[in-house]
Amino acid sequence: MVSITLKNIPDELHQRLRESAQSHRRSVTAEILSLLEAQLKPTCRSPEGMLASIRGIQERHPIQPVAQEDIDRFKREGRL
Known about the structure:
The chain has 4 helices and no strands. With about 80 residues, it is mainly alpha-helical. The model has no long low-confidence stretch (mean pLDDT about 90).
């Protein structure tokens, strides 16, 4: 894995990076990597790559089952 050193980062930009990292519960390094990946993502993804991304999201955000009685209650309350 390659390492990169960033120099001469303006204080304001560094502060914004720190705030963004904190709001996403990541380190500054992880936040920078996330931003770079989002900006430089491939324009055309393979089905396998898309499936891997979806599975990663599913692992981080598991679906919580909803009981039938809750669904019925939501309907009665006009929430569905």
